[in-house]
């Protein structure tokens, strides 16, 4: 249900201070997360709330995220925003929030729980399937391709891998995914990795990179090997380097989420929940395929970040 | 030029809980060797460290060539013409001999070190002072004696006015001592002088012009060597008479054999070593540097691999893969290199003394702490180890007192076979006497003792029998009655490939 | 002082020391040792007070309890690492080793459905086994600890992923399991069990280190391994057991983190080793070996978690947090150095 | 004087060794040293051949060139780390330090718009400055290297984020910059400049380590710091310079990675330090200090990148890759140990 807690919000505002929303994301250093943060800050100003935004150093460190959530709860926030690395591991904190009547907004990835009053997220599997669809078209429905993924264990990493491979398996039996390897989202590592894959698979027609760092790594590899135009690259997320690559033709296109929107919607929902207003349970922030043709469209541009 | 090369006056130095020097005085005349003697912990090394700027004195003055100086550090000391060989080695084991000696004074060719010039300089130095060292050999590969030679060569490589030698002969045998004395005599000119610290009374007569005696950090007296007898010096040092040079009784024949070594060889050096030792026997091992005595000991206790040979203990062949097994079989080995192989410098006196015997004082793995302190305290008293507390770190003790700790460790352990490699290295005459007495007591109680020593008088005084080694072989056994320094030297220099040395 | 007494008793042999001297400086030596730990404890208190002033919420019982809880995992790893570091070694495998053991707990409880006690035991034993293998590699195959445990770090990381099928294992069928860490067994107290597990483990580690043979040999191997061997101690065998002991703490950490997260996370753990080592070193244990204490390690671990939590609660922006943590660690260790300032020849 | 002649005449004192011994061991010492490096090189060749058999594509010139390229960044960091490790120290700041220096390059070239050479210089100097600070902390404030560089690791990480505003800085306005690493200056050769930069840096490092004063004192300090000080060497000052030198290589690595990625990535770098240290140690440099070589480090870095690339090209699943790398590192180092087996007291 969407029962919210007027008390908590009232308590915070009665002292003449802005209500405080603690946001704990899955990461911090990626541009993606910085964009989410930007969106969150924008909404914070508009809706008159105070926020903090932090996330673990790597998107593997479930325990560090739990510590961050714990500290956030100690600050008695009026609302809590969370992009859970592992929703089950976060359960005790969610329970605690519920007990204290602190509304929880999930973002980026869904949480397996009834507690969040709203979820602002991308459907990663569907987004990855979109990337697969374009890849299949671009290489003509058959041939060998590879995946450079950012992570083997996180939900986003798995969903973007599986959404892609499952789509191919279901729709394009002639396309063979020769290997899936993981570069941790590190550009250098992903570039070295992609080059090895290309060297080891001379018939390769395309590579899909599952996030910003992975995709740019793949672009680097193609660029360094002088295979521009000979190998199809599709990516995920945006960022200046990816956008440049798409403009220059090194990359065929990518799926972008709407990180600014995710952040914005999260805080907006939090502000509403604090006031006791009803909020939408599922806020689909959407995703878009973008390529050289539509990259400058206003609608797309709004979802890209440098 | 002043009358004295060096004058020290009114020097005080204290460490937490220890007054190392109190109103110390001393002077060195140009052209002389001044011997500095005193018991272990009397303050000799501390004084020398003050002189090289390692420590800062609490009070007192130093004059060099008549000028008052505040020595700020080793480099300053060198600049003042003071060159020191410390009691503990200060060598870089990973560097070569030549690199060690000229560290900080490398000959350069442009921005690069000129290594061939470096090695040439080293060779010239060795030829000049008459030591046999290989400039390009790594110091880690050298025996203790050779390392001492490196230190000596290094000290002489400076253009020093005053040479200070802190127990330079502790690691040397008689032949090497002679070489050193020759080197020193050649160093002394009317402009130079030396301070010579030693516990080997026999050499003072030979090398020194005057002898300064200190006790408990305080100046006692300075004597002219020529007009003084050693017992006088010793009684000034120790404050009592020390017994003479009695020889042990010949061991009773027909005693049960405790340990027998048959045809022991190692890949590196040892060749067909066979000997046996009876219960209650003290077997001395004599030989020149590198003869292989230490290797025999290490091979027996399993510290080094034997390539062939059998060890028979109490009539049974045993295999000893490591010193732990040796200790189980009640065979203990006291190493000649106390700093690297004997002591835990950062650990306290009690822990060092008890290290080998912890199992004996523990139950279910728990150590009886009271027992530990009690036994350690007992040893400190028994060996008169000079320390403010059994909790003092070993590195803060004087060299001789550190050696006593290592001895105490093996006295506590109660082994049946004790192999003592240069056990009295750096120990003062009074304490030596004490240790000799202890060894005799141990033997009398049925223990078997192998005593490796480079001091022939010591070997002669202590051993029932003497095995002499040369070039990895045993060249002969001597009964105490028939042994003399000359006979030992004869066997010690006997070469298998005799033709070569001729 | 000693000279004064010996002068008074001038008649005795100059070698013999008056007995009361010994007692006296005994006390001094001890006093100095405990002072040091008091001072480290001091920096911890200063930090707590500082953060408390900057944000009073820091001092709420619930936040303090959370800080304790957040110390537990790194703290447990650091306990084991203390032993290894005192021997002069290093253990880089504790982080991923912890992940592997938590996966083992997951396999035992969730896949095999065995009772809770088995899972806990399996996790601890798995940790001990990791330590044992480290120990064998280091002692018997003579592989330098850095390399042996680096290799183990990689192998454990891989095996955790392989065994778990690269996905988290959840403990939903074993509801009691999460109570192991998060339950509050002491009525009226908000401090969760994990904290008590840690403190009990610390007390055990402290007793083992200071009162038993393995502890004593830990120090002596670190002080001078060769001398220890020549003293008749089977250094190789003991070293193997010391690493095994350290692994046991890794295993315990694996159990606790699995319980806390109610899941075994195969991908995490890398990076924890540096934090654990940092806690040990901040606590005054020397990487040169031979010196160190469990009390120090506990304080070191607490300093780290107080810092992390405190900077978060006073809302320091995240990019500045690491700058601040780095600087404070420097400052704390520098102050520590200052008062230990012994003479040096450098 | 008479003694001199008697030495020449061979009627030498009995302790002297036969003279031919000296020549012999001269040769032996050298032979042994170069043998060791030959053998390490041997394992590298074995790996290359093995992977070549398992997948012939491994041996294509392009793949081999890519492996060389992938060695560069870790390799450069490892060169600096070699110096530090030979002194008996450690440097954990190289990874994030590299990020910080690449951000500095970004600020110089992109934000300030200065010419390319300034950017390169700024990056290298920034690295040197990081090293200098490490050196001052370690030498003059006596902070243990592990702590000082761990703190620097955190501070550099934070500063990289702060200075860059937590976003990458691109070099699109300095098109020549990416050629620095990726250009192919030697016509007809597919090997990019970065590889040559690395090998030139390695040669310089090798010469500095073996032929200059700073190199000699690096070994000397690692062998026995106190004795070095007693020899009148200003150990503190030299140690400070050694860390500065190491930092210079970090700076160079920052420049190269920025050029290769055509951007400065402020968030990267953590974890690189362990890889760099691993390369050094696999190359036979001892963490105890006193021993090591640049050739060894280069071989160590190559072994790591050959392994990583080889396992990928033969399609070992990723989770098994780390298991395999760990195991092969163990094996390589174990074989290395076997032939060095010196006397032991264990
Ligand atoms: N760094 C130190 N800290 C504490 N006490 C010290 C320190 N150095 C020396 N001492 C103490 O000062 C006293 C004098 O020591 P010193 O080394 O000068 O004796 P020594 O005459 O050289 O003896 P030895 O003949 O055994 O070498 C000893 O009691 C020793 O324990
Ligand atoms: N650490 C070492 N590394 C290499 N060679 C060594 C080492 N120690 C000893 N040796 C060599 O082994 C041989 C035997 O030395 P050892 O120490 O056993 O002789 P020793 O008879 O005990 O003489 P010393 O009076 O020097 O102790 C020598 O030739 C020496 O060069
Ligand atoms: O969920 C995250 C995401 O949406 C972004 O693309 O990069 C990292 C991911 O883990
Ligand atoms: Mg002395
Ligand atoms: Mg010997």
TrEMBL record, chain B:
One of the Pfam families matching this protein, by short name? ABC_tran
Instruction: Recite the UniProt keywords alphabetically.
Output: ATP-binding, Cell membrane, Membrane, Nucleotide-binding, Repeat, Sugar transport, Translocase, Transport
**Does the keyword Membrane belong to this entry?**
yes
Q: Which residues form the ABC transporter domain?
A: 6-241, 254-496
S-adenosyl-L-methionine among keywords: no
List the GO molecular function terms: ATP binding
Q: Cite the InterPro entries for this sequence.
A: AAA+_ATPase (IPR003593), ABC_carbohydrate_import_ATPase (IPR050107), ABC_transporter-like_ATP-bd (IPR003439), ABC_transporter-like_CS (IPR017871), P-loop_NTPase (IPR027417)
Q: What is this protein called?
A: Ribose transport system ATP-binding protein
UniProtKB/TrEMBL annotation, chains C, D:
* Entry-linked InterPro entries: ABC_transp_permease
Q: How does it sit in the membrane?
A: Multi-pass membrane protein
Transmembrane annotation, as ranges: 38-58, 64-85, 92-112, 118-139, 146-166, 186-209, 240-258, 294-314
| Cellular compartments annotated | Cell membrane
Give UniProt keywords alphabetically: Cell membrane, Membrane, Transmembrane, Transmembrane helix
- Locate the compositionally biased regions of type Polar residues: 1-12
Q: What is its main location?
A: membrane
Q: Which domain of life is it from?
A: Bacteria
* Residue segments, region Disordered: 1-23
One Pfam match, given by its short name, reads BPD_transp_2
This protein's name: Ribose transport system permease protein
Please name the taxonomic classification of the source: Bacteria, Bacillati, Actinomycetota, Actinomycetes, Micrococcales
């Amino acid at each position: 249900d969407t029962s919210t807690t007027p008390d908590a919000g009232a308590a915070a505002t009665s002292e003449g201070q802005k209500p405080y929303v603690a946001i704990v994301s899955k990461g911090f250093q990626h541009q993606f997360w910085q964009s989410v943060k930007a969106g969150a800050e924008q909404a914070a100003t508009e809706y008159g709330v105070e926020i903090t935004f932090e996330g673990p150093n790597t998107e593997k460190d479930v325990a560090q995220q739990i510590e961050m959530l714990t500290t956030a709860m100690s600050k008695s926030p009026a609302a809590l925003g969370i992009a859970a690395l592992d929703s089950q591991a976060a359960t005790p904190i969610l329970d605690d929030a519920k007990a204290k009547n602190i509304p929880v907004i999930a973002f980026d990835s869904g949480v397996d729980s009834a507690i969040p009053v709203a979820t602002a997220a991308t459907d990663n599997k569907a987004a990855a399937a979109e990337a697969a669809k374009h890849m299949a078209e671009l290489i003509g429905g058959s041939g060998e391709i590879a995946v450079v993924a950012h992570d083997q264990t996180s939900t986003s990493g798995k969903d973007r891998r599986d959404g892609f491979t499952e789509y191919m398996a279901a729709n394009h039996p002639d396309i063979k995914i020769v290997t899936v390897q993981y570069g941790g989202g590190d550009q250098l590592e992903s570039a070295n990795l992609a080059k090895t894959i290309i060297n080891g698979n001379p018939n390769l027609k395309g590579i899909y990179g599952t996030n910003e760092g992975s995709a740019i790594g793949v672009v680097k590899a193609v660029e360094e090997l002088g295979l521009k135009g000979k190998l199809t690259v599709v990516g995920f997320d945006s960022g200046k380097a990816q956008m440049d690559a798409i403009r220059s033709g090194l990359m065929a296109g990518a799926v972008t989420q709407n990180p600014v929107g995710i952040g914005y919607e999260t805080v907006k929902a939090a502000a509403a929940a604090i006031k006791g207003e009803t909020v939408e349970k599922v806020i689909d922030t959407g995703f878009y395929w973008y390529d050289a043709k539509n990259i400058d469209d206003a609608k797309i541009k709004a979802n890209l970040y440098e | 030029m002043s009358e004295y090369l060096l004058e020290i006056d009114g020097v005080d130095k204290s460490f937490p809980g220890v007054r190392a020097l109190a109103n110390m005085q001393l002077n060195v005349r140009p052209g002389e060797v001044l011997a500095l003697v005193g018991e272990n912990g009397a303050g000799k090394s501390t004084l020398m460290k003050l002189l090289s700027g390692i420590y800062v004195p609490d009070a007192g003055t130093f004059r060099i060539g008549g000028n008052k100086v505040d020595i700020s550090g080793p480099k300053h000391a060198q600049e003042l013409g003071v060159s020191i060989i410390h009691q503990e080695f200060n060598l870089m084991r990973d560097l070569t001999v030549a690199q060690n000696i000229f560290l900080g004074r490398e000959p350069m060719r442009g921005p690069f070190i000129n290594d061939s010039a470096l090695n040439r300089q080293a060779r010239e130095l060795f030829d000049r002072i008459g030591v046999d060292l290989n400039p390009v050999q790594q110091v880690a590969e050298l025996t203790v004696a050779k390392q001492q030679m490196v230190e000596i060569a290094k000290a002489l490589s400076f253009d020093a006015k005053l040479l200070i030698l802190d127990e330079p002969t502790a690691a040397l045998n008689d032949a090497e001592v002679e070489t050193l004395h020759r080197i020193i005599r050649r160093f002394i000119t009317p402009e130079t002088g030396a301070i010579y610290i030693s516990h080997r009374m026999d050499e003072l007569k030979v090398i020194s012009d005057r002898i300064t005696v200190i006790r408990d950090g305080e100046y006692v007296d300075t004597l002219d060597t020529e007009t003084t007898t050693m017992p006088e010096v010793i009684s000034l040092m120790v404050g009592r008479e020390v017994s003479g040079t009695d020889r042990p009784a010949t061991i009773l024949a027909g005693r049960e054999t405790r340990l027998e070594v048959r045809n022991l060889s190692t890949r590196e050096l040892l060749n067909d070593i066979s000997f046996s030792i009876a219960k209650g026997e003290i077997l001395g091992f004599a030989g020149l540097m590198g003869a292989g005595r230490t290797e025999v000991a290490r091979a027996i206790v399993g510290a080094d691999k034997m390539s062939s040979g059998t060890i028979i203990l109490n009539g049974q062949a045993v295999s000893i893969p490591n010193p732990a097994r040796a200790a189980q079989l009640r065979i203990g080995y006291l190493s000649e290199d106390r700093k690297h192989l004997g002591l835990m410098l950062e650990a306290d006196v009690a822990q060092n003394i008890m290290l080998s015997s912890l199992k004996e004082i523990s139950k279910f793995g728990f150590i009886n702490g009271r027992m530990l302190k009690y036994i350690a305290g007992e040893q400190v008293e028994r060996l008169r180890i000079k320390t403010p507390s059994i909790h003092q770190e070993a590195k803060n003790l004087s060299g001789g007192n550190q050696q006593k700790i290592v001895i105490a460790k093996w006295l506590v352990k109660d082994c049946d076979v004790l192999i003592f490699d240069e056990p009295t290295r750096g120990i003062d005459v009074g304490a030596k006497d004490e240790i000799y007495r202890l060894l005799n007591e141990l033997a009398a109680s049925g223990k078997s003792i192998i005593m490796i020593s480079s001091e022939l008088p010591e070997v002669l005084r202590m051993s029932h029998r003497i095995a002499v080694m040369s070039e990895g072989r045993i060249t002969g056994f001597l009964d105490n009655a028939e042994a003399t320094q000359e006979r030992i030297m004869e066997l010690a220099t006997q070469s298998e490939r005799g033709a070569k040395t001729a | 002082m000693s000279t004064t007494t010996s002068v008074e008793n001038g008649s005795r042999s100059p070698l013999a020391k008056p007995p009361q001297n010994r007692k006296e400086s005994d006390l001094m030596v001890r006093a100095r040792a405990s002072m040091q730990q008091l001072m480290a404890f001091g920096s911890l208190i200063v930090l707590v007070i500082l953060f408390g002033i900057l944000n009073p919420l820091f001092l709420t019982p619930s936040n303090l309890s959370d800080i304790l809880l957040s110390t537990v995992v790194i703290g447990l790893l650091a306990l084991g690492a203390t032993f290894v570091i005192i021997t002069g070694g290093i253990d880089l495998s504790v982080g991923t080793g912890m992940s592997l053991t938590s996966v083992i707990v997951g396999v035992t409880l969730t896949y095999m459905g065995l009772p809770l006690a088995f899972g806990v035991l399996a996790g601890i034993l798995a940790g001990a086994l990791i330590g044992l293998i480290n120990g064998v590699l280091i002692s018997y195959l003579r592989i330098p600890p850095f390399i042996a445990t680096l290799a183990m770090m990689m192998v454990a990381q891989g095996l955790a992923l392989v065994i778990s099928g690269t996905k988290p294992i959840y403990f939903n069928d074993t509801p009691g399991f999460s109570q192991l860490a998060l339950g509050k067994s002491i009525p009226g107290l908000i401090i969760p069990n994990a904290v008590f597990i840690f403190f009990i483990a610390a007390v055990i580690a402290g007793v083992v280190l200071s009162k038993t043979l393995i502890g004593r040999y830990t120090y002596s191997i670190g002080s001078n391994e060769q001398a220890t061997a020549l003293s008749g101690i089977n250094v190789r065998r003991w070293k193997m057991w010391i690493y095994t002991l350290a692994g046991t703490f890794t295993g315990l950490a694996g159990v606790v983190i699995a319980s806390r997260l109610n899941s075994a996370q195969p991908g995490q753990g890398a990076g924890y080793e540096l934090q654990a080592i940092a806690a040990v070193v901040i606590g005054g244990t020397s990487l040169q070996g031979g010196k160190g204490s469990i009390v120090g390690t506990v304080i070191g671990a607490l300093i780290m978690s107080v810092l992390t939590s405190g900077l978060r609660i006073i809302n320091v922006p995240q990019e500045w947090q690491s700058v601040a943590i780095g600087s404070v660690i420097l400052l704390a260790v520098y102050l520590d150095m200052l008062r230990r300032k012994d003479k040096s020849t450098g």
